[in-house]
Design brief:
heterodimer, A: 414 residues, alpha+beta, 6-stranded mixed beta sheet, 9 helices, elongated, B: 282 residues, mainly alpha, 13 helices, 1% strand
Chain lengths: 414, 282
């Protein structure tokens, strides 16, 4: 197979592997080394990157996503030349600048001019280039009136603005950016992305490591999902961000959902189990937003009961009840059960809740109100969705803006 | 990928001591040193004065002790000038090496966040020490003239002393800064070594005051002594012995020269070997 391409890729990563050797027992003094010259301590090997290959074309906005510890930052550091790879090769085509942190080399006791010089030189400018660009930088950061102040007297927002301005003015062909945008307020982030889009339109290549899936979907042309040091998928940002959500929640559902609340009731019945299933009827600990799902609770009666009611409240992480339902409200005549009989409570609905953990607090009651068994926060499920609207519930809806003579429509919701 | 590697652009090799670009090495070292110097210089109200105070205070105390109580300086011509010159040269050496021990760790935020030739870190420390040395030497100049030493052509030979001194300090800087990343007791060890070096070099005393059988080994095997002996002859007192006189011939000076080169080469070798992994070891 030969690649028929006029332009060579901006970044080519060819079968890169990186292993960290973590000594089990760290010899950190010359004394120990001198006393035990032949002692060899074992190493734990950690494969941070395992046979990673991909290419990023010139002018591409490429997202790299993955969980904490998946190897994405290691990959970025290898590309940046901060870490040496153990195997494989990385090629870049153009001037490359790394922004693992904004304002590398900033010193709080120096004024803006010196910090710009320092940071600019660190990022690859010559001192004279950095000095020549100073005016642009300070104006872009809108800090002209504060240029005599020492950096320590800047607000953190001002420092970020200054750092970002330097970054923009460095004129790199390829930018490696590691979650720089996690800092700063919303308007600053927007400004960052505006600038990135402009840079991209100018033919610069941007590689962007992030957790922010909405940013990936909004700005990236392509994205790569990396997990346990391997590339899981490369492609359309929306698909990648969906997989990311699956991967990250799939792994974290074993995480502690918190203790169950205090159980109460007269003990006439017992709630044995509660669980969730997806549209195919398979048990899940993670459900995708917008898909049909079912909540199940199984109860056993210790005494003969006429027309018991089963109900549940669904709450979010901040204990806000999102939804409540009860058999009492739909059919109060649920029948009669003998001692030892079991009943299953089934609630089917479309998962419209905002992404996060949802807790179910079911209870069984005698007809009326007397509770036989109530188990607060008995079961939980994680709702995933690539989009955080800020609302507690994302109902399917239509949204439109109507102006005289024309209609702009869009579909919202899950 | 069937395309040949060379056609894919510039390979990223990871960090190294020198990096691929000598200009970048120079720019970064100078910028870092200048910034650090500015911080020292303008960081406090007295700025430069503080920088000057240290060797001067040390000089004041030692001068008082060794001329008033212990009559070590008695009978030595230009003793104060010799003492002050020695202190200033030694201050350069001890500042440069002691600061470089922790230098890589002090620059952790740079080392872990950005690619640059790792040698920039010790070089910047040496440059900063040189800046301070030049300023201190200006003070020495004033003092030396006040104590009646004549202006002489030999003063122009000063760089011939400062270059080997700087090489010795650089070699040790590279060695110590690389070792400290792995071994944290390098710092206390080096402090002790510096103490020994201070008393083991002709700063408080002049070489003729030592027993005959110690004079020659000191000049041969302690390059600091060699430089100090020669500095006294060139800068202060023409009648004082040269390093070659003490060593027993100019050809013997190849030994301290070889030690300096050896330390430099060792330091570079160790630093170069450690450089690619420094960011991971921190």
């Amino acid at each position: 197979m030969t690649e028929v391409s006029d332009a060579i890729p901006a970044v080519a990563i060819d079968r890169v592997s990186k292993t960290f050797q973590i000594p089990q027992e760290r010899v950190s003094t010359l004394k120990e080394r001198a006393l035990h010259p032949f002692k060899r301590t074992g190493y734990d090997r950690f494969d941070a990157l395992d046979d990673v290959s991909f290419a990023v074309e010139r002018g591409e906005f490429f997202g790299i996503v993955g969980r904490n510890g998946s190897g994405k930052s290691t990959l970025l550091k290898c590309m940046a030349g901060i870490y040496r790879t153990d195997a494989g090769a990385i090629y870049v085509n153009g001037r490359l600048s790394t922004f693992i942190e904004l304002g590398v080399g900033f010193n709080p006791d120096l004024a803006a001019r010196d910090n710009v010089l320092m940071n600019g030189v660190m990022l690859g400018l010559s001192p004279s280039e950095a000095r020549a660009r100073y005016d642009h930088i300070i104006d872009f950061a809108e800090l002209r009136e504060f240029e005599e102040l020492k950096l320590k007297n800047y607000s953190s927002g001002m420092q970020v603005r200054l750092a970002f301005s330097v970054m923009v003015q460095v004129d790199a062909d390829i930018l490696l950016i590691d979650e720089v945008l996690a800092v700063g307020d919303v308007s600053f982030q927007q400004k960052c992305f505006d600038v990135f889009n402009r840079l991209r339109d100018e033919g610069k290549t941007i590689l962007f490591v992030t957790h922010d899936m909405s940013a990936v979907r909004r700005f990236c042309h392509r994205a790569a999902l990396i997990d346990r040091g391997r590339i899981v998928m490369i492609g359309d940002p929306t698909e990648v961000s969906n997989s990311y959500v699956d991967v990250s929640f799939g792994a974290s559902t074993s995480a502690d959902p918190g203790p169950e609340g205090e159980r109460s009731g007269d003990g006439t019945a017992e709630l044995l189990e509660a669980w969730w299933t997806d549209e195919r009827g398979e048990r899940q600990t993670v459900l995708q937003q917008g898909r049909p799902c079912t909540f199940h609770a199984r109860a056993r009666f210790n005494e003969p009961i006429e027309n018991p009611a089963i109900a549940t409240v669904l709450e979010n992480e901040s204990h806000l009840p999102l939804m409540a339902t009860s058999t009492d409200w739909t059919e109060s005549a649920t029948g009669s059960f003998g001692a030892g009989d079991e009943a299953e409570f089934v609630v089917q609905f479309e998962m419209a809740f905002a992404p996060g953990r949802i807790y179910a607090s079911p209870w069984v009651a005698h007809q009326g109100t007397r509770v036989m068994d109530r188990r607060p926060r008995m079961s939980s499920v994680v709702v995933t969705g690539a989009h955080q609207s800020g609302g507690l519930v994302d109902l399917p809806h239509d949204v439109r803006l109507e102006a005289a003579g024309r209609v702009l429509t869009g579909q919202g919701g899950a | 990928m069937t395309t040949a590697g060379a056609a894919l652009g510039r390979p990223i090799k990871g960090p190294s001591a020198l990096g691929g670009d000598a200009r970048r090495l120079l720019h970064l070292s100078v910028t870092l040193a200048v910034m650090e110097f500015k911080l020292r210089f303008f960081g406090s109200v007295l700025g430069y004065l503080w920088q000057l105070m240290r060797p001067l205070l040390l000089f004041g105390v030692l001068y008082a002790v060794f001329t008033q109580f212990v009559k070590l300086g008695a009978g030595i011509q230009f003793y104060p000038a010799i003492l002050l010159t020695g202190i200033v040269l030694f201050t350069f050496f001890s500042d440069a090496t002691a600061r470089s021990v922790t230098a890589v760790l002090d620059r952790e935020n740079l080392v872990r966040k950005i690619e640059f030739p790792r040698l920039v870190v010790p070089i910047a420390v040496i440059l900063l020490a040189y800046f301070n040395l030049v300023l201190n030497l200006l003070a020495v100049l004033v003092f030396v003239l006040l104590t009646g030493v004549d202006v002489r052509v030999e003063w122009l030979a000063l760089p011939l002393l400062l270059i080997p001194l700087g090489m010795l300090a650089s070699g040790l800087s590279m060695l110590l800064s690389a070792l400290y990343v792995r071994f944290r007791d390098v710092q206390p060890i080096w402090e002790v070594v510096l103490q020994v070096a201070f008393y083991g070099s002709p700063i408080l005393y002049v070489i003729e005051q030592l027993p005959e059988n110690l004079q020659k080994p000191m000049v041969l095997f302690n390059p600091l002594s060699t430089i100090l002996v020669q500095s006294r002859h060139w800068l202060i007192d023409q009648s004082a012995p040269t390093a070659a006189d003490v060593a027993g011939g100019a050809e013997y000076l190849l030994i301290p020269a070889a030690i300096i080169l050896g330390v430099f080469a060792l330091g570079f070798w160790v630093f170069n070997r450690e450089a690619p992994r420094i960011a991971e070891e921190l």
